Every structure is written in C-alpha cells, then in structure tokens.
TrEMBL record:
Pfam family, one: DKNYY
Keyword Membrane tagged: yes
Listed transmembrane segments: 431-452
Keywords: Membrane, Transmembrane, Transmembrane helix
Organism in which the protein naturally occurs: Epilithonimonas arachidiradicis
Protein name in the entry: DKNYY family protein
InterPro entries tied to this protein: DKNYY (IPR027375)
Length: 555
C-alpha cells in the first residue's frame, strides 16, 4: 500500500508523548479526533516536547523550530519562549494565539475537494484530507495577554477575546460568564453568554441589551433542543437564541418547558403566538396561535401542561428521506382529547420518578420521563386498562426496559389528541450534490467502492468534548459526565457458527445507560473472528482513554 495511506492507527506500536502526540519510526504524529493520526511534517522527534499530563493543552507541541497545533504549525511562535496562558491561549511574549482544544471540521476544505483528495490518496498521490483540525486564531502582536474568567476568554489591557475573536466594547478587567440555570436550581457557568457588568455577549457578539441581574441561560435537558443556547431576560420578557433576539414587539415570552425530552425545539409563548428558533436558517419562526388563555399555563409534569381546564403535551418527530437521510425534526403541541385538567389526578408512585401514572375518570395515562432520545417520543401515553396501570404502580424497580416492553406490547399507546401547532426545522442537503455528481461516473463509482472495501468506520465520533454514536441516534454524551464505556465481542446472530461483532454501551456518572450499539471492525460482508473484534475494541479503548474516558471489556 502507498505510504500516502493512513500512516498509523491506534494499534500501531508507537511511543506516546501525551494523549495527542506520539512518535513512530522517527516521525511525530498527532491524533486529531475524527481525522485519525496525522504526521507532523518536519517535526524533530528527538527534541519534540509537549505539555505532559495536561489535557487542556495536550494538542500543543513543539520542537526546536516550531510550535504545532496538532499537525499544523502556529507560525511566528517561538518554541523557546512558549507559555500556556490557560483557556487555550499561547504566547511567546510577542506572538499570541488562541487554539481550541477540541477539533472542528475544516471549513476551508470543501466537499468536492475532500472527495477528490480521497481518490488521490487511494492512488498514492496525496495525503489524506485534513477534514478536522484544531482551529486557531492569531491575536494582535506585541501585547501582554492573560486568560480571563470564563470558557475560552482571554484579554490584554484594552480588549477581551472569545476564542481569539475580539469582544467589541468589552472591559477586559470585568468580563465574566453568565450562569446557566437548571430546573433543579443548580447553576453552572455559561460557555456561550458573557458580560462585563454593562454589555452582554453571545460568544464574541455584542447583544442589543444592557446587563441586568435577571439574565441567565436556561439549562435544557433534552439533547436536540440543548444544542442551541437560550438567554432569558426575565425583566423584559425577552429571549435570545444563539445570540439572535426574538421580536421585541411580541414580548413578553414564556418558555413552555426546559425539560424538552419530548421536543426538538424549545417553544416560547406570547400573547401574539408561539415561537421557536430555527438554527438552520438562524431565524425566529412562528409555530402557531397561542392556545393558552391569557398566556397562562401550569406544568403538570415534564412537557405536560394545563390551561383553562385543558391538558396539553409535547411530542417529537423526525422525517427521514430514503436517499437524503434526515430531512426535518419537529415538535408538536397537542391537546389531550376528552380529558379535563380538573379531572386529571396523579396516582401515588411510591417516590419512583419513572412511575408517573395519572387518572382521568376510567382512563389511565403514563407521563414519560425518558424522552425521544430513548425512543419515547411523546410526553403522554394512554394505558390500555386499569389492571395494567395498577400493575405498573406495584413495581418498585420499574425501569426503562419495562416501559419499552409495555410500549411494544401496545399496553401503552399514543393518546387520542388534537395537534394544536407544530414547529419544524428542515435540514439542507445541498452538500449531497458534489458526491452525486462524482459518483455518477462509472469509473469514479467503482473507485469509491474500492476505497470503501475493508474501510474502518468508527462506531463513535469525538467532537467538542462530546461522544456521539456514529449512527442515526445522534445523541451526544459529554465526556466529563461519562463514568465508563463498556465493550464486548458478541455473536453476530444466534447461530453457533456465526461470526462476531462489537458491542458498546455508555454508562453515565448519574447511573443512566445508553442503548447497546453494535459495530464491525470494517466495511465487509464476511464474518469476523472474535480475536479480530477484540483487537479493534482495544483500539477504541485506547482512543477513549486518551480523552480521559474509562473503558471496560466484558464477556
């Protein structure tokens, strides 16, 4: 195979310098999450140094001539005077850079260029494309910089910076993060919204409001809705989504729920309608008329509300195209049919938060707390009969698997309801066209098929401090909240002579677990041996443990 192919892998017998850099056969390599190992071209393996045992700065290395962010040179930095300032700012006293710890997709590499470079790589005429890298920004020279309080914040005597980008009019002496406020009253520092006591910022963007002490970022539990950051101005009833202001003429706004395990978009009600933020178009959209009398409602349970003796609930849905993949995600606000809020009574659950049974006359309902990421897309399900409801109430150790069995057996069903309004976000699939144009040619199609033969496709993606399964689940898990990842090698089916596949499950520090996800060591139609699968699992374990995540291999 050409030396332009994948240089080394996690199983290569290399010498690790830290969790990112290693040496192999006299060369230095950098692990770039989602891009694999990349050779650090021209680096001197004998003099190469790193910030040893320092996760935050592990992606920075240097030799006698250059400083590197992964495999990319940070031009102008003197390695002999290099100093880490914290918050991912690095200086030699004259030249200063911000360089993100987490890799991001290289937007300078277009889709067409990436595909062509993959073809050239297979022919041995090009390196593999730099699809991901550690992004960096050079700051104004000859300034004295320090790190500031808050995620990725730095500054000099005159300016404050977020990820190396100037924060207009910010006072570097008083810049600080706002708080994220959660439903359980816990608070954490925001990594998106900041203030200097006068101005307010989304990242480095100056927002059109003056600071007041009612401002906070809302902590959202649902995975998809939490991918945007929402700032609440309680005094003025205003909302800012990823820095985009809702229409002030329609304020004040009220957030329906911060749970949102059964939603894909947060909904905000005002007297003039219900609104949501579309992160694809970066616009605030109207979902429909406000059904709540005088915009008043109470939360009965997560994602379940009462207003004017009516019961409302949220449900999430997705639409997938056969050829284009995910095309849209929606959130539905529904009204429960023939149930008055005054008749809706919660039954004693023995303090088990997952046994959430309500009664309305002779009808019984299960109010879900697992959410759409666990395949429970509706906040409310109707229980088929009283006997089933009573049986659920007697189970002191009821768990998710038990609820899923009830759902599959049709003991639980989606309740009769009227759809009041729907918010929907469509996903742009224009990026498919370059692939389709290239793959349309017979010769190229055959070549790409050859490239995919025996190609390894990792069962997970590491990006921005999160682990995400490399499948249609799309659920993200914060690395610092993971207790361990459990692997095993299992039979591909129940036949005793069948091959093996890998299986992984994430165990969170709060005790929750992900689904079991199955994977192969490569794209192949052939059976794989148990030893082959276990060798690949060891590679995956090494990759995770370099990011500080504990793993285990079980039978």
């Amino acid at each position: 195979m050409s030396d332009k192919a994948e240089p080394i892998t996690y199983s290569t017998p290399k010498t690790d310098l830290n969790s990112v850099f290693c040496t192999y056969k006299g060369k230095v390599y950098a692990a770039v999450p989602s891009n694999g190992y990349c050779e650090v071209k021209g680096a001197d393996a004998k003099t190469f140094k790193t910030f040893t045992d320092n996760y935050q700065d592990a992606h920075i290395g240097w030799d006698g001539k250059h400083v590197y962010a992964g495999n990319i040179i940070l031009k102008g930095l003197n390695p002999n005077n290099l100093k880490a300032l914290a918050n991912n700012y690095y200086t030699d006293g004259a030249t200063t850079y911000f360089c993100a710890r987490n890799s991001k997709r290289n937007k300078e590499l277009g889709t067409l260029k990436e595909v062509l470079q993959l073809v050239r790589q297979s022919m041995g005429t090009a390196e593999k494309p730099q699809t991901y890298w550690y992004p960096f920004v050079e700051l104004p020279k000859n300034q004295f910089y320090t790190s500031k309080k808050g995620f990725n914040i730095g500054g000099n005597a005159y300016q404050a910076f977020f990820r190396g980008q100037v924060m207009p009019k910010a006072d570097p002496k008083s810049i600080r993060p706002l708080n994220i406020r959660y439903a359980d009253r816990q608070e954490r520092e925001s990594s998106s919204y900041f203030t200097d006591g006068k101005n307010v910022y989304y990242e480095n963007q100056l927002l059109p409001l003056v600071y007041n002490n009612s401002l906070f970022e809302v902590g959202i539990e649902g995975d998809i809705p939490s991918r945007s950051a929402y700032l609440i101005d309680s005094i003025h009833g205003m909302v800012y989504a990823d820095g985009h202001a809702f229409d002030v003429s329609k304020a004040p706004y009220k957030m329906l729920s911060a749970n949102l395990k059964h939603a894909n978009q947060p909904l905000f009600s005002s007297r003039k309608g219900v609104y949501f933020y579309d992160p694809e178009s970066e616009k605030v959209e109207r979902a429909g008329d406000n059904p709540f009398v005088d915009n008043q409602f109470t939360q009965l349970a997560p994602d379940v509300f009462a207003s004017a003796n009516k019961v409302y609930f949220l449900a999430a849905s997705e639409h997938w195209g056969r050829k284009t993949g995910l095309s849209s995600r929606s959130t539905h606000l529904l009204e429960l049919e023939d149930v008055g809020a005054s008749d809706f009574k919660k039954l004693d659950n023995g303090e088990n938060p997952y046994i959430n049974i309500w009664q309305a006359g002779k009808r019984y309902f299960y109010l879900d707390n697992f959410g759409s990421s666990n395949l429970m897309s509706s906040a409310v399900y109707e229980i088929k009969d009283e006997a089933t409801a009573r049986d659920i109430l007697t189970q002191s150790d009821l768990r998710y698997d038990d609820i899923r069995k009830l759902n599959r057996s049709e003991a639980l069903s989606f309740p009769p309801s009227d759809n009041v309004l729907t918010s929907s976000v469509s996903y742009n699939r224009d990026w498919y066209w370059p692939y389709l144009l290239i793959l349309g040619g017979g010769g190229i199609a055959g070549l790409v098929a050859f490239l995919l033969r025996n190609k390894k496709i990792s069962p997970f993606i590491l990006q921005d401090g999160y682990l995400m399964f490399n499948n249609m689940n799309f659920k993200r898990y914060q690395l610092t909240e993971i207790d361990k990842v459990v692997f095993s090698a299992v039979r591909s089916n129940y036949r005793s002579n069948s091959g093996y596949s890998g299986r992984m499950q994430i165990v969170m520090k709060n005790g929750k677990k992900s689904f079991n996800t199955h994977f192969s060591t490569k794209v192949t139609l052939l059976s794989e041996s148990e030893a082959t699968v276990k060798t690949y699992i060891k590679e995956l374990q090494n990759q995770l443990e370099k990011e500080g995540v504990k793993t285990a291999l079980v039978r």
